[in-house]
Amino acid sequence: MEPEHIAFGGGSPVTVLHPLVAVGMLIAIVLILTLPRDKAITPFLLAFFTIPDGQVLVLGGVHLTMHQILILTVLGRMAASRGSSTEGRFAGGFNALDRVVVLWALSAFIINCLQWMETQAMIKSLGDLVVSLGGYVAVRFLVPDREAVRRTVKVLAVICAIQGACMVSEQFTRQNVFGFAGGAWPTIREGHIRSEGVMGTLYCGVFGGVLIPLFLWLWTEGKSRMAACAGLAGATAMVFASHASTSWMAYGGSLVGLAFWPLRKQMRLVRWGIVATLVGLHLVMHGPVWSLIEKVDLTGGSSNYHRYMLVDNCIRHFSDWWLLGYKHPGAWGFDMWDLCNQFVAAAVTGGLVTLILFVTIYSRSFGAIGTARKHVDGDRGQEWLLWCLGAFLFANLVASFGINYLVHLIMCFFSLLVCISVATIEARQATVRRAEAPAEVEFAYAGSGVGGRAPISPTTQEEW
């Protein structure tokens, strides 16, 4: 039976705020408002990923989670910042990827409100909009350049080290370190303890699994190897301690994405090969190609059949959800209310338009990475960063078939998208500078010397 509180209207009727969380929030808010813009990402992410979702402040019947308050703090700073131009607040201005993310968030909000047509549903949708649209804009504001990208990855490495240590301790003590603040207690499945951490079993495992490529990139940044090692160890511990197939799929997706590095110039053939393989399997298999989901069980206790039936029912009931989503997917079958697939969740809660926009986010992201990689061809450092971002994105794509992204994973995903925006913008700008340099050199030669040219002084070369 579908729990009545998961749609809207649930939660504590009073404020639930542990004193330690309150102190931590005050410190984080002060640092976000006072630190230089590119350094404020550190307290923001540290607070965001170490506070459980159950900590809420209730004002006039409206629930404000600590995550929403953190996002609103950044948005307040952005509104008060000097310079009102888009380029001043967002590095390179809003690009095509940014616009798709904004349209996706607005589409999910509008369609969900139209689907329910109730005040409580609209209030909940507004809270979700703060996390989706507000969260993306907040991180986009706080990450203006590549140095901020490196700092973001270092902070995520520290978070994984903390979470990994706490989840390993759950394996021995069977007590969640974050239990005092509302963190869930570890559960046992098939004789194995599934650690919960601050985000929950699946979410912690996926969080660690998808970050592996960025920590490997961080290792190549000379001064960041200690943070990279801590992140790799912590992320791997999170995957092991979660004991979930989806976590291992995310981890495997990261490694597979990285393994294609030698074929980075032949990815068009690889993509068409994958499409041809899936079509061929669909034609020869006894069931549909998406029934392969049923075969994925890496821990011996996975809900693989449920995930297969979720996709199958979503496809078969297209007429139910394509326009404005569908209120009661639980009517499709046993436990179908549990939308543990991000693509199905986007379809059921936001209809076909929202699903298309969500898929477009991946399409635009992969396209931007591929184009930027061609622009920096030959610059191994830039290429490696872009490739690791692509592997991160691929791991998220794989994980999306086994879990729906809630507040913590949404922010992790947004951090990735912002890093992609900044990295691709800087790659394009570097290409423009290289293209302009020869023209300037030619102009400097003209007017003197043999053949109308004169040698360029070392000082002038250094300026260029």
Description:
The protein has 464 residues and is mainly alpha-helical. It has one domain. 65% of the residues lie in helices and 3% in strands. It is built from 18 helices and four strands. α7 (146-173) crosses α10 (225-242) and α15 (342-375) runs parallel beside α17. The longest helix is centred in the last third of the chain and has 39 residues, at 407-445. The chain is globular. The model is unreliable at 443-464 (pLDDT under 50).
Order of helices and strands: HHEEHHHHHEEHHHHHHHHHHH
Evaluate the radius of gyration. 24 Å
The portion of residues forming beta strands comes to under 5%
Average pLDDT, to the nearest integer? 88
- Distance from first to last alpha carbon: 68 Å
Number of helices: 18
Strand order of the largest sheet: 1-2
**What general outline do the C-alpha atoms trace?**
globular
- Give the uncertain stretches in residue-range form: 443-464
- Main sheet attributes: strand count, strand direction, barrel closure: 2 strands, antiparallel
Comma- or semicolon-separated keywords:
two-stranded antiparallel sheet, single chain, 65% helix, globular, disordered C terminus, 464 residues, two-stranded antiparallel ribbon, mainly alpha
